[in-house]
Design a protein that fits this description.
The protein has one domain (13-148): Glutaredoxin (3-Layer(aba) Sandwich). The strands form three sheets. A five-stranded mixed sheet has the order 5-4-3-8-9. The protein has a two-stranded antiparallel sheet with strand order 1-2. It has a two-stranded antiparallel ribbon with strand order 6-7. By secondary structure, the protein is α/β, with parallel strands linked by helices. The chain has five helices and nine strands. It has helices spanning 43-54, 56-61, 74-83, 97-101, 143-148; strands spanning 13-15, 21-23, 31-36, 64-70, 90-92, 105-110, 113-118, 121-125, 131-135.
């Protein structure tokens, strides 16, 4: 079950593409955009990451910290971040701890085949760690506009 507006964001710790350990508590007092995406370097995930990259200054100006999360490993994230010059951390969640805590690991369907995967979702978390917005219908090419409202 996915988290809802008003819920406290679950705490987590994970490594980013550079091997840095990142915890939710590192950002206490800041607004966070945490976006969950299925797979590095796929067309839709690349469009989404590049939308956030291209509007990163506007996101920073609004006081947002941006974090991407997928179940890919650090090495995959490093390649993805370098290839597209992504200025924000991509957290590796190969054990599914974060995707499951946020309720975004679930059944998906592609070409009639059911499988388990990350359900593309973005959470906007306030300075106190409370979820202010959940974006579940993601426009990958214009995702930053959805976040900036």
């Amino acid at each position: 079950m996915a988290l809802q507006v008003g819920d406290k964001a679950p705490s987590f710790e994970a490594k980013d593409q550079d091997g840095n350990s990142i915890k939710l508590s590192d950002f206490h007092g800041k607004k966070i955009v945490i976006y969950f995406y299925p797979k590095d370097s796929t067309p839709a995930c690349t469009a989404q990451a590049c939308s956030l990259r291209d509007n990163y200054d506007a996101l920073l100006a609004k006081g947002f910290v941006v974090l991407g999360v997928s179940v890919d490993d650090e090495k995959s994230h490093k390649k993805f971040a370098n290839k597209y010059s992504l200025p924000f951390p991509l957290l590796a969640d190969p054990d599914h701890n974060i995707v499951e805590a946020f309720g975004v690991w679930g059944e998906k369907m592609l070409y009639g085949r059911k499988y388990m995967g990350t359900i593309r979702t973005t959470f906007i978390i306030d300075e106190a760690g409370v979820i202010q917005e959940v974006i579940s219908k993601i426009d990958t090419k214009n995702h930053a506009a959805q976040v900036l409202g």
